[in-house]
Amino acid sequence: MTNRHQPRTRTLLEARVVFNDRFSLIECTVRDLSDSGAQIAFAHPVTLPSQLELEIPKKGISTRARVAWSNGKTHGLTFISAADEKASSTFPALLAEPESPEMSSPQDASITSSALNIQNVLAEARNHIAQIAGVPADKIRLKLEIDQ
């Protein structure tokens, strides 16, 4: 619970967790929130799946999340960006850690940085389109073609 990379802001926001292909929805309260995660609470103890979608209507947020910890009524979530979900399968060679320092070059670092930036832009676009369309972000498919 203390391995946070970003400070969280205490809140009392109405929210809901959605899972089971959007067939299951449970109302909850967001107790604290950051760019990378949230702490949510329920009126009664709840067992959650390892991954779900968190919707916070007042903030216009709908994002995929991984359950980091659970304690009956209270759960810690880590937000999953589309880049996190897709990075290893989309750019496996670019995102792999170099085996030794001699094998990496400034050009390799630039390529890896570019791949991560592209994934971040696509993830932001996917989330924005999903909010506008009123659908889950994981239902949005973006295709990027680069002509050279």
From TrEMBL:
Pfam family, one: PilZ
Domain of life: Bacteria
Gene Ontology molecular functions: cyclic-di-GMP binding
Signal peptide range: none
Residue ranges occupied by any PilZ domain in the UniProt entry: 3-83
The name this protein goes by in its record: PilZ domain-containing protein
Originating organism: Microvirga brassicacearum
